[in-house]
Amino acid sequence: HWEGAEHPQFKLAEETGMISMRQGTKDGTYHLRFKAYDRKHTQTDVPANVTVTVKEIPHEAVVNSGSVRIEGITDEDFIRIWDYKTQSLSKSMAEKFKDKIAQVFELPRETVDVFSVQLRRKHPPLTDVRFSIHVGSYLKPVKLNGIVLMNRVVIEKAIGHNFTMIGIDECLYENQMCEGSCTNSLDISALPYMVNANKTAMVGVRVDVLAECTCGARNFSKEENCRNTPCYNGGRCFENRQSLKCSCPVGYDGPRCQQTSRSFKGFGWAWYHPLEMCDKSHLHLEFITRKLEGLLLYNGPNVAPIKEDKYMITDFIALELERGYPRLLLDFGSGTIELRVKTKKTLDDG
Q: Taking every annotated instance into account, which residue ranges of this chain make up the domain EGF-like (predicted)?
């Protein structure tokens, strides 16, 4: 039962001890005080204090989240703060993960939210973790997952467990989900996902990655609405009675913000979401350059694959200029194919 008056934003089920939060509770930290009793051990009026931290996670944070799949640990162990070996409180792996993410991105810790921890398999355990970073706007998943991948070793060392996947992609289970085209879709449930680890608990967003056997770049079967995030490259979606429109960020245009242009002064690069896994793909690009050598397009792993990885990605496509002539490299798992085009003159004419 409550010690004193009931908190207006929380409700206690006295028979089960379950605490529920009322809708509309604002962000913040709440300190709740109770008196507990235990019929079995004849304990009465034992002080029981609960600290609840509330943080709103908007839809934009979820669709722009990074994700990792961790082996050898359950969701409960990931958030656990009680060390059974030493019989003392310790920093949870979730907190260590958050600390290290903030460190590798060189950002304040409060910009990082770890909002979803879900058990995917019990034996042997696999746990999915989702996080977002907000610095004025939310960083895109391709950047979150890419930088985590480049700092994989130090993050794994910090939490003491290995990642089996960075940027959860159910299409990587080759031929298990789909034969041919495969696209991941994010299923965000209105129901929360609760993890209870005795001295601590987490109520997070329930998010599932579903493999759909279709080409995401050319899937016109879904009803168009803003919930399906039809605007590419961070475009904002607006609906009216007849149709929807996309408001595109600087550097993008087209009906769905799918067109872009970039310029470089001999260095730098632009980082985009990887190409969809499709049976048939068509990619169009135009370029102007005065350089004889350079990489025009690359799609594939951004670090050298680790041989021990169960789902090692080695497929890649690269388009480059070599001595002013285009050169295409392809590898879809059976070796690298090289295609050279001998144009009438070199393409570095500006």
A: 222-258
